[in-house]
Amino acid sequence: DADASAQALEAVFDLARGRVTSAEVMDLLARDCVRERCGILSSDLETLRGWVERAGIRWGVDAAHRATEGQPRLAQNTWRRGLERLLLGWAAGDAGRLGDVIPAPGAQGAPAELLGRFVEFCETLFELRERFLEARAPAEWSGELTRALERLVAAGGADAAEEQRRLRGALERVAAAARAAGFEAPIPLDAFWPELQRALGDAGSAPTHAFLSGAVTVCELVPMR
User: Fold this and answer.
1) Nearest to 192, CA basis, from 31, 21, 4, 10
2) Residue 144: count of CB within 10 angstroms of its CB
3) Dihedral-angle region of residue 179 (phi above 0 means left; psi in -120 to 50 means alpha; beta otherwise)
4) DSSP code at position 98
5) Cα within 13 Å of Cα(84), Cβ side
6) What is the pTM of this model?
7) Region class of 183: left (phi > 0), else alpha (psi between -120 and 50), else beta
8) Which of 44, 99, 145, 160 could pair covalently with 156 via S-S, beta carbons 3.0-4.6 A apart?
9) What angle do CA 77, 69, 51 make, to 5 degrees?
10) What is d(CA 133, CA 101) in angstroms, rounded to the nearest whole number?
């Protein structure tokens, strides 16, 4: 539904600003709308969690991400190194060490299709993470979140498709309000998100306020603000 879709996008943003722990990523994948979009069954989740554990994945996208968190620039126990270990283990078995990459134990018998879908989900998530940390004009955020919705969240049945249509409509209304106010400055996503929540609350009516048009913008207390 629209709430589930918006919550999934917000979960990606929450994750993007933090350490990207194994638990956070797997919790995101466990959301039905995300899991279905990736073509992963609920019965696959325990298998995937086992792979993550055996690959030694703890937190951090890669060594560079760890460095931004004030930690040593090491690839060990990051997502990228863990995925490399899984792929190497699947292709070459436990004895197939490649440079400093040690294959994950037991990965050779992993179903190739499931492993491929999991790696694709992770790479999509890491790309969205980078994009969500940028500053964009409101109209650009509207397009960016619409594309992210298509890439990460399943529309499901007719009811879910209708509610996603409402979410897209809310994104369009925020962009239209910004254009009407002549506001085109780049802003972070956490400044855009309260406007989207207000537009969703309008239930299809036009916003009654101009987008960031005053010297001070006041918003309600909502998560992350």
Assistant:
1) 10
2) 18
3) alpha
4) B
5) 15
6) 0.84
7) beta
8) 160
9) 20
10) 29
Nearest to 145 by CA among 120, 170, 162: 170
127's enclosing H/E stretch is: helix 112-132
In a 3-state reduction of DSSP, which class is residue 181? coil
pLDDT tens-digit series, residues 195-212: 999 998 875 444 434 455
The dihedral sign for the CA sequence 19, 21, 24, 29: positive
Neighbour count for residue 16 (Cβ, 10 Å): 18
Give the C-alpha separation, 44 to 115, whole Å. Answer: 10
**End-to-end alpha carbon distance in the chain:** 24
Cα dihedral 134→136→142→144 (10° resolution): -40
Three-state DSSP state, 101: strand
SS3 content of the chain, % helix, strand, coil (to 5): 60, 0, 35
